[in-house]
Amino acid sequence: MERSVYSRIILKLSGESLKGAREFGIDPGTVSYVASEVAEISKSGVQTGIVVGGGNIWRGAEYEAAGMDRSTADSAGMLATIINALALQDALEGADLEVRTQSAISMPSVAEPYIRRRAIRHMEKGRIVIFAGGTGNPYMSTDTAAALRALEVGAAALLMAKNKVDGIYNADPNKYPDAVKFDHLTHHEALSLRLRALDSTALSLCMDNSLPIVAFNLFHNGSLINILSGRRVGTMISDSGAQLAAAPAASG
């Protein structure tokens, strides 16, 4: 890989993306693919943290709609993220990477507690850190957890791998074929448009701290490498379009 434009990143993976073609759960082949993509960037020296969702196992909103207490539903969702984190940890270790899973929920028999300084030190040593358990609080999405962890560890960018979508559109492109894709948005524009593809709390955190976001499809071959090489992939959300305008588009 060419020299990365970002020395440290947080990669946000949706739980839905880990189920592959299955209706729910974890698809081993999909997790193996994700591990191989992460291995390629990690071995090139990019310090990498990962936040993973849990929607392939538990959708708290659905249970809340059925009458479950919101805090209880969200707590179950946090446990689902830990299951996904352990599956991803195993796949990454199978790719000869050093990995540490840190959980916002105390679970010392399977994961380290989340400690900011320890996480940074792991990354400085070349280890991949998987942040599980969301923020540890209900009413907070894993998108918000990803933004929070990115800011806490001093990441240069938040890379949000979307499920079956290659960026941010003005409508769901899987339902509306004429949906228009945005190449670049400011944080404020993204908030103003009230796009369902992005969590408003996560967007606000990134806007207030000038943290760029790239929304993309991890399953387009080479997309992660292209982003880190400075090429235009997916949708860039940042304070200005200067970086995007100066970057060449990814080929293929």
Describe this protein's structure.
The protein is built from nine helices and eleven strands. The longest helix has 25 residues, at 70-94. The chain has one domain (8-246): Carbamate kinase (3-Layer(aba) Sandwich), CATH 3.40.1160.10. The strands form two sheets. Strands 4-3-5-2-1-6-10-11-9 form a nine-stranded mixed sheet, with helices on both faces. Helix 1 (28-42) links the parallel strand 1 (8-13) and strand 2 (47-52). Helix 5 (142-152) packs parallel to helix 7 (200-208). Residues 242-248 have low confidence and may be disordered. The protein starts with 7 loop residues before the first strand and ends in a 6-residue tail after the last helix. With 252 residues, it is α/β, with parallel strands linked by helices. Helices cover 37% and strands 17% of the residues.
The global form is: globular
Largest sheet: 9 strands, mixed
Strand content: 15-25%
Total number of strands: 11
Spans of 5+ residues with little confidence (pLDDT < 50)?
242-248
Q: Mind telling me the CATH superfamily name?
A: Acetylglutamate kinase-like
Helix tally equals 9
The CATH architecture assignment turns out to be 3-Layer(aba) Sandwich
**Helix coverage percent:** 25-40%
Specify the CATH class.
Answer: Alpha Beta
List the strand order in the largest sheet. Answer: 4-3-5-2-1-6-10-11-9
Q: Tell me the domain tally.
A: 1
Q: Which structural class best describes the helix and strand composition?
A: alpha/beta
